[in-house]
């Protein structure tokens, strides 16, 4: 870590086992050839940290406890990057990991998160005010209950703008967030049968921040309270893997806040970051660089 952290990240930090298949997605009772496989940092927070570092932003990560199988890989990966790991808590258990099978536009993640969350035990940190107050922007992912809300309230208290993801219109996180990036998976879960325009109108009325609805390869919609809904088509690229696309978009929003971009500029910048991300695999070894994003924007 060569410079003080500009951004505080709170959320999932994992070890991700990823498998890129050679000839299409898994089929029942059929053999599949693995083309490439990796064990690298993942999770919404881990991926965002990697992308932000590549864009020239210094960060510190907080959130998931790190176990014995994940820790060596994580420390080695970030040793020469502007990603501060000092807030992380290390345990004597193997650690939280997921497994993702990928074939182009299709991917399937696997893990033990339902078991972990239903255990009744906390396996993540409690955010501390001093770790948030000295940053310029924060990212708060919505997975950790009271601790998530505490991080948001500390941001609000210290006037730190923050980006979140997939928070419904009636959630405290959505109402406090500076930017809420809502995925197609989220709208499908919470707003079945509703059109994207209807969902965005509902959401924009509940916050003073910017709400962005992404729809995979479809048109993005975004708006603030009292404003008209705007639309943007994603950049057209050849897709190699969609793993980390949403986390990269989120990182692009953070960069936009850091550099005081307008809403239009921020959404366009984040979309360009995400487009570059899905054109390569594995993302942690090939994150978008600032000059690549600027070139695509031109």
| Shape type | globular
Strand order, largest beta sheet: 5-4-1-8-9-10-11-12-13
Largest sheet properties: 9 strands, mixed
Rounded mean pLDDT is 96
3D architecture notes:
- The chain has 298 residues and is an alpha/beta fold.
- It is built from eleven helices and 13 strands.
- It has helices at 43-54, 71-78, 113-117, 129-133, 145-157, 172-176, 184-190, 196-204, 245-258, 263-278, 290-297; strands at residues 7-11, 14-21, 34-42, 59-63, 83-84, 97-103, 106-110, 137-140, 162-165, 179-182, 210-215, 218-223, 230-232.
- The strands form two sheets. It has a nine-stranded mixed β-sheet, with helices on both faces.
- Helix 1 packs across helix 9 (245-258), helix 9 runs antiparallel to helix 10 (263-278) and helix 10 (263-278) packs across helix 11.
- The longest helix has 16 residues, at 263-278.
- The two termini are 32 Å apart.
Can you give me a brief rundown of this structure?
The chain is α/β, with parallel strands linked by helices and 298 residues long. It has helices at residues 43-54, 71-78, 113-117, 129-133, 145-157, 172-176, 184-190, 196-204, 245-258, 263-278, 290-297, and strands at 7-11, 14-21, 34-42, 59-63, 83-84, 97-103, 106-110, 137-140, 162-165, 179-182, 210-215, 218-223, 230-232. The chain has eleven helices and 13 strands.
List keywords for this structure.
about 300 residues, alpha/beta, 9-stranded mixed sheet, 4-stranded mixed sheet, 13 strands, about 25% strand, globular
């Amino acid at each position: 870590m060569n410079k003080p952290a500009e951004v505080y990240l709170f959320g999932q930090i994992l070890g991700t086992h990823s498998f890129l298949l050679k000839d299409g997605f898994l089929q029942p009772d059929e053999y599949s050839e693995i083309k490439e496989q990796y064990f690298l940092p993942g999770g919404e927070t881990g991926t965002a940290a990697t992308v932000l570092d590549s864009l020239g932003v210094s960060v510190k990560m907080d959130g998931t406890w790190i176990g014995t199988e994940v820790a060596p890989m994580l420390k080695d990966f970030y040793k020469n990057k502007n990603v501060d790991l000092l807030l992380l808590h290390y345990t004597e258990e193997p650690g939280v990991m997921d497994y993702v099978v990928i074939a182009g536009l299709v991917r399937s993640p696997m893990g033990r998160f339902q078991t972990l969350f239903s255990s009744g035990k906390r396996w993540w940190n409690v955010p501390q005010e001093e770790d948030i107050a000295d940053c310029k922007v924060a990212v708060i992912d919505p997975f950790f209950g009271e601790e998530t809300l505490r991080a948001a309230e500390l941001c609000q208290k210290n006037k730190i703008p923050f980006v979140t993801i997939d928070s419904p219109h009636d959630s405290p996180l959505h109402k406090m967030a500076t930017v809420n990036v809502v995925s197609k998976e989220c709208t499908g879960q919470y707003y079945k049968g509703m059109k994207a325009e209807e969902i965005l109108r509902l959401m924009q009325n509940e916050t003073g921040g910017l709400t962005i609805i992404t729809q995979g390869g479809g048109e993005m919609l975004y708006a603030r309270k009292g404003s008209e809904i705007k639309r943007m088509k994603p950049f057209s690229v050849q897709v190699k893997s969609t793993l980390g696309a949403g986390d990269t978009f989120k990182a692009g929003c953070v960069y936009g806040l850091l550099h005081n971009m307008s809403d239009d500029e921020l959404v366009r910048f984040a979309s360009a970051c995400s487009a570059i991300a899905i054109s390569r695999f594995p993302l942690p070894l090939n994150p978008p660089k600032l000059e690549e994003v600027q070139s695509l924007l031109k």
